[in-house]
């Protein structure tokens, strides 16, 4: 066998669908976790500086932000390991690998493992759909804030109407209703929108939202890949190509 044929067989044994999903998953999780973690930190600073004067008003929010940051650490670790495992499962069950390594057998353990991965990946897709929707909420909040600031800029010649334009953090559940001031109005709100913290936080939330979408796409790709792998193993099992564990 020549070097070219050997290389072609090796490349033919690569599960490209799982490989693409792994790359998407790594990039999506990196965006979501990295940008989301920093965005939460910047959000706490904005609330502390412009929307709350008393520590007791935002202490609950600070604890929630800290909790979500720990969750982000766990998500990053879990998805890194899970993507590696799914990629290894893709290498194991790809039909090209069967042709390359003649000792390949479709075992009962292999079919059970593939069906388990299908179930886990399906559950992850459902859960991540909720995460994806949840990650859109801060983007919506900052979008409304930026839109209100744009309106204030347009109406600078009528100060009376400007002061009626406000963003109330209490309406979004970020602060309790007795928090003071709890909102920013008029030129104060316009000043907030011009700060580096606001622009950075807004961009970070958009990046985290995009990362959540990329991760969802990766999970859907994994689900297609694992379903195909399971169908392949069942087909081999029906053909009698190895049924022992």
TrEMBL record:
Topology with respect to the bilayer: Multi-pass membrane protein
BP GO annotations: axon development; central nervous system myelination
PROSITE patterns attached to this UniProt entry: MYELIN_PLP_2
Domain of life: Eukaryota
GO molecular function: structural constituent of myelin sheath
Keywords: Membrane, Transmembrane, Transmembrane helix
InterPro entries: Myelin_PLP (IPR001614), Myelin_PLP_CS (IPR018237)
Localization of this protein: Membrane
GO cellular component terms, semicolon-separated: myelin sheath; plasma membrane
Transmembrane spans: 70-92, 113-137, 204-224
Pfam families cross-referenced by the UniProt entry: Myelin_PLP
Membership in a protein family: Belongs to the myelin proteolipid protein family.
Protein name (database record): Proteolipid protein 1a
């Amino acid at each position: 066998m020549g070097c070219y044929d050997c290389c072609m067989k090796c490349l033919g044994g690569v599960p490209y669908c799982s490989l693409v999903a792994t790359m998407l998953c790594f990039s999506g999780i990196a965006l979501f976790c990295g940008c989301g973690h920093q965005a939460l930190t910047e959000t706490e600073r904005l609330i502390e500086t412009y929307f709350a004067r008393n520590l007791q008003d935002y202490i609950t929010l600070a604890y929630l932000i800290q909790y979500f940051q720990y969750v982000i650490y766990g998500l990053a670790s879990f998805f890194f390991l899970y993507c590696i495992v799914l990629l290894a499962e893709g290498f194991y069950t790809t039909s090209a690998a069967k042709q390359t390594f003649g000792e390949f057998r479709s075992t009962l353990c292999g079919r059970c493992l593939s069906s388990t991965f299908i179930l886990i990946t399906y559950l992850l897709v459902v859960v991540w759909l909720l995460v994806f929707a949840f990650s859109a909420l801060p983007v919506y909040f900052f979008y409304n804030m930026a839109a209100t600031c744009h309106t204030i800029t347009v109406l600078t010649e009528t100060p009376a109407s400007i002061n009626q334009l406000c963003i109330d953090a209490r309406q979004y559940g970020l602060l309790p209703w007795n928090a003071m001031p709890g909102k920013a109005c008029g030129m104060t709100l316009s000043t907030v929108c011009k700060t580096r913290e606001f622009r950075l936080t807004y961009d970070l939330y958009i990046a985290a939202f995009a990362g959540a979408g990329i991760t969802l796409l990766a999970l859907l790709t994994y689900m297609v890949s694992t379903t195909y792998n399971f169908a392949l193993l069942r087909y081999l099992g029906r053909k009698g190509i190895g049924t022992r564990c």
